[in-house]
């Protein structure tokens, strides 16, 4: 599991932290000939290559090169496919789950073929899951929530042009803080606090005038908050079970 989580962390950092908006737009415009896609794949080469090098005790081998090539080339192919699709939740999740399946297959093969690899991470086995949780619940989950509620946000903008099509930066960072708190509480066995936060937030926000006047606003709030809190809770439960 530690090997999979380390590869997952590298994937999240390359996809959701180091990838520039200009690279994304260039991928959409030029697809497989995109220089933005080249830069993006290059970040995966460095990050995934470093993680695999660490896993193999900083020994470069044909196995290391083959696994790195498999991960990078499949990532490149999946991203080319995605560049031809619309930016919707279905295609977004298909893209991300495809990457995770590849990482899962690689991790399973590594552990099955080299069982001793896991032993070198025993000193970090209480840290790696938490680190993966923090990395995932920040930018990756913020973007996932945004894509999930985007149709409602656009509908709200059509009804009221003063409503931005994109969530505010304040909401972005507040959502990250909320998810961190929920994960920390659930991961340490405190289940009441996240429940109070969830229902307290919904009750307070639903009392606002705009929420009472527009059902669309209520659906937007409930959907976004539910996806955010439920995912953070599941991450916390998963960490507690490891």
**pLDDT under 50 segments (min length 5)?**
none
Share of residues in helices: over 70%
Shape: flat
Radius of gyration: 20 Å
Number of helices: 11
**Count of the domains:** 2
CA-to-CA gap between the ends?
A: 9 Å
Give the H and E element order: HHHHHHHHHHH
Q: In percent terms, what proportion of residues is strand?
A: under 5%
Which sheet architecture does the biggest sheet show? none
Average pLDDT works out at: 92
Total strands: the figure is 0
Instruction: Tell me the structural class.
Output: mainly alpha
Would you mind describing this structure in some detail?
- The chain is mostly helical and 242 residues long.
- The protein has 2 domains: 2-122, no CATH class; 139-241, no CATH class.
- It is 79% helix and 0% strand.
- Helix 1 (2-17) packs parallel to helix 6 (128-137) and helix 4 (62-83) runs antiparallel to helix 5.
- It is flat.
């Amino acid at each position: 599991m530690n090997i999979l989580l380390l590869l997952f962390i590298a994937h999240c950092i390359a996809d959701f932290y180091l990838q520039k908006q200009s690279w994304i737009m260039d991928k959409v415009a030029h697809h497989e000939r995109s220089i933005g896609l080249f830069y993006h794949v290059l970040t995966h080469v460095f990050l995934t290559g470093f993680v695999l090098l660490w896993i193999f005790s900083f020994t470069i081998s044909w196995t290391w090169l083959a696994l790195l090539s498999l991960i990078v080339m499949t990532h490149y192919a999946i991203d080319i496919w995605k560049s031809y699709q619309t930016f919707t939740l279905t295609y977004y999740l298909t893209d991300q789950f495809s990457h995770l399946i590849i990482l899962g297959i690689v991790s399973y093969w590594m552990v099955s073929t080299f069982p001793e690899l896991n032993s070198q991470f025993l000193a970090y086995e209480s840290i790696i899951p938490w680190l993966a949780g923090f990395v995932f619940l920040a930018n990756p989950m913020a973007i996932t929530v945004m894509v999930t509620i985007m149709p409602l946000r656009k509908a709200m903008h059509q009804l009221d042009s003063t409503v931005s099509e994109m969530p505010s930066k304040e909401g972005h960072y507040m959502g990250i803080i909320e998810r961190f708190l929920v994960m920390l509480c659930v991961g340490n066995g405190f289940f009441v606090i996240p429940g109070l936060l969830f229902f307290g937030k919904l009750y307070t926000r639903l009392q606002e005038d705009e929420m009472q006047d527009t059902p669309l606003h209520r659906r937007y709030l409930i959907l976004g908050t539910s996806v955010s809190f439920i995912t953070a809770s599941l991450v916390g439960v998963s960490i507690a079970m490891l």
